[in-house]
Write a structure and sequence with these properties.
The complex is a heterodimer.
Chain A: H1 2-33, H2 37-103, H3 110-133, H4 138-166, H5 171-210, H6 214-238, H7 244-304, H8 310-322, H9 327-334, H10 338-366, H11 370-378, H12 385-418, H13 421-445
Helix pairs in contact in A: 2-3, 2-5, 2-6, 2-7, 2-12, 2-13, 3-4, 4-5, 5-7, 6-7, 7-8, 7-9, 7-12, 7-13, 9-10, 10-11, 10-12
Chain B: H1 2-23, E1 55-56, H2 74-81, E2 84-89, E3 97-98, E4 104-105, H3 107-120, E5 126-131, H4 136-142, E6 147-148, H5 156-159, E7 163-171, E8 173-178, E9 193-197, H6 201-209, E10 214-218, H7 222-229, E11 235-239, H8 240-247, E12 253-256, E13 263-269, H9 274-289, H10 292-300, E14 314-315
Parallel strand pairs in B: 1-14, 2-5, 2-6, 9-10, 9-11
Antiparallel strand pairs in B: 3-4, 6-13, 7-13, 8-11, 8-12
Helix pairs in contact in B: 1-6, 3-9
The chains are: A mainly alpha, B alpha/beta.
């Protein structure tokens, strides 16, 4: 046992000595070569070729990161952001719809029922999609799981509320309150947090996609400096002005630099625009939608008188929506085209009609005309608050759809701009390396 | 707030019961079927302070004709406004709740309508504010409403904040449990979850005084029934009139134990309008005399048994 180990060790020893010897000889040769011009050329060739290939590799990696980030925004982060925005909006809408439905009487109008069903459908759909696209982030997964767990409980409470309400039992309203409390204090805050996280991740990705390509620029710069140095060196030694190979290599590096610059510059516009569309949907128009829903809930609760200070709530929400510098103003500023601005303007007009319709409801209620007030609030008639709210809601959805469509086009545009970047980087790097090798080889041959 | 004092009394009673159970372990257990109404364990307010919580302000003369309120009075201001603003409970079956046509109905709402009729000659000139249990006195004090008819128990402490009308209903706190649950009274619920209305000072006292009883607070008493149906609480502690309105909605529940407190409901009115208190008392006297009180009781509160005679008015001047 002991002897066989020794045999192995001694068996390996000569091989190590051979490698060491070879390495020493190689390095020694390079050092002795450096004394002569051809030697200098050989060393420079090696350093240049390896350097250019290394720089090319680094630039290629940077190009891939950029393409991946943009694709991640288009295919992963923005859709996920859209899903969590839809999730929040449809959950809030479900709650608002049920509260308004209770005002209408013992039996919910069929359109109220249909809207609630659609909301739950949208919510569960976007929840499932968000779950699929979430990937490995623990915090997000935990929130999605909790919402998934609470949503059936909420739906169960709503059904109990309906069943009891149909039979004229006041415990139905108690179930409605419990359901609403669960939604407002447990489910919606989680959905809001999801939304906040996703928006932050999206902003991060945009920052990365739009950052100055420092790595690629440095790689190009270093390669170019090396090539210029080689040409000056050759000029000093051989007094020949042009070396086709080195010039071609420099041209390749320059082309790479130009391509990079062009791609990055071309991306700035579309990326910026797509970011604005995304922000408009999740922040400005999204907030406007939520504020409108909350105002409508406050209106319903005000008539049902299940809480205090609902009129203040209503005014507060409509202010958030429509005041100077509010959500709609933000959406108007973020809009990148006239159609977008027009759609926001349309929503602003609908918001003011809704406010007027609401004032009529309040006026009736304050003059002890409760039945008429409820009628004005929930009937599907032309001048009712229900119709005005529907129109506001539809106008906001239209604006959101426009921004979403524009986002898709812009991010695709940006992706197209980056399409050739990795392959071009690779080709230019190889071309530059080959050019440098051939150019110096040509001079070397003159020494034979 | 009835709940504040009521809860205090709930807990007081429980303490007494628990203490009795501890000091007299050989005492035979209380009968399995609780007698409907036993002598109350504690008076609703400290009589030692010389305060008669039931004594209100005597009406001056007869009621003025509708539409002819004395100039400068609170009633004249209400008449000029065109409607009465009344605070009522939220969704309390039998006291104030919406019927199939969304009209508010109930024992309390009938009183509001009678007051509106006396002022306007029109029973519908009312704007209702449905109040959380904890907000009832605040609403009366702030002038947000003209008066509050919302199962408010009169106590001497509350008399410092608002004026009260005559007593319009005598009741007391009991316990609602699921049938077959085996709970016989509040003391038997130690270690279990008991639901009551939140927002009253008695609420904190309950938590502190009976750590063994797990209190669950809600903003509207009816929510307690939902929680019990969901299995989240084991019992509801409230006035038996309110409990009866819950039991009628769910035949799987029953009211058990003796009345552990004595509650007297009155109309709460802000302190600076004694003329309105006298006016309301005149309306209450009239509806007691002409049989409307009895008719209302028979219509809404039959569950509590045959109607007693209306509470006799007591006046301090």
């Amino acid at each position: 046992m002991q002897s066989s180990l020794q045999t192995i060790e001694t068996g390996w020893a000569p091989l190590g000595q051979v490698v060491e010897g070879l390495r020493h000889r190689r390095i020694g040769k390079l050092i002795t070569d450096w004394e002569t011009t051809p030697g200098k050329l050989r060393v420079s060739r090696m350093v240049l070729v390896l350097g250019i290939l290394l720089a090319g590799g680094v630039a290629l990696f940077a190009a891939n990161v950029r393409v991946e980030t943009t694709r991640d925004i288009a295919e992963h982060l923005e859709p996920l952001n859209a899903h969590v925005t839809t999730l929040y909006r449809s959950l809030a809408d479900a709650d608002t719809t049920v509260a308004a439905g209770f005002l209408a009487g013992r039996v919910e109008p069929s359109q109220v029922r249909a809207r609630y069903d659609m909301d739950l459908d949208l919510a569960t759909g976007s929840l499932a999609q968000a779950g699929i696209q979430t990937g490995p982030e623990q915090a997000t997964a935990v929130r999605i799981t909790d919402i998934t767990r609470q949503l059936p409980i909420y739906a169960g409470l709503v059904e109990r509320a309906r069943t009891n309400n149909r039979q004229g039992l006041t415990v139905g309203v108690a179930y409605l309150r419990l359901a609403s409390e669960l939604m407002q204090h447990r489910i919606l805050p989680q959905a809001a947090e999801l939304q906040r996280q996703q928006a932050a991740r999206l902003d991060d990705a945009y920052e990365r996609a739009q950052s100055l390509p420092v790595v690629a620029l440095v790689a190009c710069g270093v390669s170019l400096t090396g090539l210029i140095w080689a040409q000056i060196f050759l000029f000093q030694r051989t007094h020949r002005v042009l070396n086709i190979g080195l010039v071609a290599a420099s041209a390749a590096v320059l082309s790479g630099l130009v391509w990079w610059t062009a791609a990055v510059v071309a991306c700035v516009g579309p990326l910026n625009d797509s970011h604005r569309h995304g922000q408009s949907v999740s922040e400005a128009l999204g907030s406007a939608q939520i504020a409108a829903l909350q105002a409508r809930t406050a209106e319903s609760l005000g008539l049902a008188r299940t809480g205090t200070a609902t009129e203040l709530d209503f005014n507060d929400r409509m202010q958030r929506l429509a005041r100077h510098g509010g959500a709609l103003d933000a959406a108007r500023e973020l809009a990148t085209d006239q159609i977008g601005r027009d759609l926001v303007q349309e929503a602003a007009i609908k918001a003011s009609s809704y406010s007027s319709a609401h004032n009529k409801v309040r006026q009736l209620d304050n003059n002890a005309k409760y039945a008429e007030a409820v009628e004005a609030a929930v009937s599907p008639g032309q001048t009712s608050a229900a119709t005005a709210f529907d129109q506001l809601d539809k106008a906001l959805i239209k604006a959101v759809d426009h921004e979403r469509g524009a986002f898709g086009r812009d991010i695709q545009h940006a992706e197209t701009m980056l399409t050739g970047l990795p392959i071009a980087t690779a080709i230019f790097a190889v071309a530059a390396a080959v050019g440098a090798a051939l150019g110096i080889r040509q001079r070397l041959e003159e020494y034979r | 707030m009835s709940i504040r004092s009521a809860l205090t009394r709930c807990l007081l009673a429980a303490v007494i019961l628990l203490a009795t159970a501890c000091t007299q372990p050989s005492t035979p257990p209380s009968p399995p079927v609780a007698p409907p109404a036993q002598p109350t364990l504690s008076p609703s307010s400290p009589a030692a302070q010389g305060c008669n919580r039931r004594a209100s302000l005597r009406p001056r003369g007869s009621l003025p004709a509708p539409g002819a309120m004395p100039a400068g009075s609170a009633m004249a201001r209400i008449a000029n406004r065109g409607y009465l603003v009344a605070g009522v409970n939220q969704d309390t079956q039998a006291f104030s709740f919406r019927d199939d046509n969304l009209r508010l109905q109930g024992f309390d709402v009938d009183i509001v309508r009678d007051i509106a009729e006396a002022i306007f000659g029109d029973r519908e000139r009312v704007v209702y504010r449905q109040l959380n249990i904890a907000d009832r006195l605040t609403a009366a004090r702030s002038g947000e409403v003209d008066l509050v008819v919302a199962t408010v128990s009169i106590t001497c402490q509350r008399r410092d904040q608002v004026d009260f009308s005559n007593v319009y209903l005598e009741t007391g706190q009991r316990v609602l449990v699921n049938r077959g649950s085996g709970f016989a009274d509040l003391a038997g619920l130690a270690g279990h979850r008991v639901c009551s209305s939140r927002g009253a000072t008695g609420w904190a006292t309950l938590q502190a005084a009976i750590p063994k009883l797990i209190p669950v607070g809600v903003s509207a008493t009816t929510d307690c029934l939902a929680l019990m149906q969901l299995g989240q609480v084991d019992a509801v502690c409230a006035d038996d009139t309110t409990l009866a309105s819950m039991a009628v909605q769910d035949s799987r529940t029953e009211i058990v134990g003796p009345r552990i407190t004595e509650e007297s409901y009155g109309v709460a009115i802000r302190k600076d309008t004694p003329e309105l208190v006298r006016f309301v008392n005149a309306v209450l006297e009239r509806r007691a005399a002409d049989g409307r009180w009895r008719a209302g009781y028979e219509h809404w509160l039959t569950l509590l048994g045959p109607p007693p005679s209306p509470p006799a008015p007591q006046y301090q001047d």
